[in-house]
Specification:
166 residues; 5 strands; globular
Length: 166
Amino acid sequence: MVGSGRLLREPPRIKALEAAAAVAEGRVERLSSSCFRVRSSDGSRVYTVYVDPGRGLAYSSDNGTRLRGYKGYPIIAALILQGLVPYDPQVGEALRGVPWRSLNERLKSYRRVLEEVKRRARARGLPPERLEEYMDRVAEALRRISLRLLPQPPLECTARRGEEPA
């Protein structure tokens, strides 16, 4: 795991598209103002996410955040729901159903995954330039948000919904 308290780096640009798809598909559940649960594209994983931009703190159990030290797509999706990162519903809809996890594992290259995602979006009537513009807007917003990685999520994010933390 990346050292706690470490400043999270900017993510690969394609993570903006993965986050938009998660929002469009309803895979992002807001538990409180700062706590979220995000389901992976194939449903096999559920990520615990905490984002408090005001305090500059974040946690996410996804590999991009924990192991690679960047703002992973679950954090970006949470920032979208918090209204701090732009969301384009047409981009999200065009990316519904993209099997992100299997594409990432099979193609092993974000460049190749992006080519495939652009092909799918074009087939749904969204030009690739629209995806590029969206990634640029998200990257710009993310550069203005400085987040330090917490070693674990706050207790408020790990208690079951409807239960008080012990």
